[in-house]
């Protein structure tokens, strides 16, 4: 299977290599996004993600398809988690595999940057005394 | 006409779904946005406000019949 596109409760980062491995690929590039302990010097207790799943999967498919076409990728993985995630937990994994490394490096960056721009997933930062929807306000 | 709300818009409205009755139903995406901003002034303070029709981003000019799946998309923040 060329593409793996998923919204899941928990991300297992160990399986992404197997999913991207391909006899025609000499390069595999993976980005993992995780929960960081501090935002603007404030301690984050957890992040909570929610999604409009049907649309999110469609948008992720579009991103994967355009990357496969642009960089002639052999395999693509796009997987995002939902629910509450604690510090150091992975929340997103994207990866690409291609014949040579330049293509998969560029594609991997495109996958995560475009996901953050268009895919309907929302993140709430939970601090000790407040919660904030990220990017909602100027 | 059913409208789904996500993220901060769900908090502003206090519900994940609103039903507009036939007479109040907006004719297109732009008038739906205007109606929401008029009803919930907090919407005008958001960085952006998009609407999805049948799970695709929709332009303001797109006409609405009321049979679509309509969703309000506040600024996304995945990753």
Automatic annotation (TrEMBL), chain B:
Q: Which Gene3D superfamilies match?
A: 3.10.20.30
The GO terms describing molecular function are: nucleotide binding
Cross-referenced InterPro entries, in alphabetical order? Beta-grasp_dom_sf, MOCS2A, Mopterin_synth/thiamin_S_b, ThiS/MoaD-like
Q: Name one GO biological process term.
A: Mo-molybdopterin cofactor biosynthetic process
Which keywords belong to this entry? Nucleotide-binding
Query: Which sequence ranges are marked TM in the entry?
Result: none
Q: Name one GO cellular component term.
A: molybdopterin adenylyltransferase complex
The record's similarity note reads: Belongs to the MoaD family.
State what protein this is by name. Answer: Molybdopterin synthase sulfur carrier subunit
Q: Which organism is it from?
A: Maribacter litoralis
């Amino acid at each position: 299977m060329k593409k793996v596109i998923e919204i899941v409760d928990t991300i297992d980062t160990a399986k992404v290599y197997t999913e991207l491995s391909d006899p025609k690929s000499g390069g595999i590039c993976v980005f993992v996004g995780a929960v960081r302990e501090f935002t603007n010097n404030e301690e984050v207790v957890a992040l909570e993600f929610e999604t409009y799943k049907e649309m999110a999967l469609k948008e992720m498919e579009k991103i994967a398809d355009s990357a496969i076409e642009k960089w002639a990728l052999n395999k693509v993985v796009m997987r995002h988690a939902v629910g509450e995630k604690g510090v150091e937990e992975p929340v997103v994994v994207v990866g690409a595999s291609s014949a040579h490394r330049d293509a998969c490096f560029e594609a991997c960056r495109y996958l995560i940057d475009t996901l953050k721009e268009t895919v309907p997933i929302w993140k709430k930062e939970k601090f000790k005394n407040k919660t904030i929807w990220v990017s909602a306000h100027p | 006409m059913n409208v789904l709300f996500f993220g901060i818009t769900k908090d502003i409205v206090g519900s994940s779904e609103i039903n507009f009755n036939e007479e109040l139903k907006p004719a297109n995406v732009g008038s739906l946005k205007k109606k929401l901003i008029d009803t919930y002034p907090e919407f005008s303070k958001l960085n952006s406000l998009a609407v999805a029709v049948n799970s695709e981003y929709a332009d303001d000019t797109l006409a609405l019949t009321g049979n679509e799946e309509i969703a309000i998309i506040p600024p996304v923040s995945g990753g």
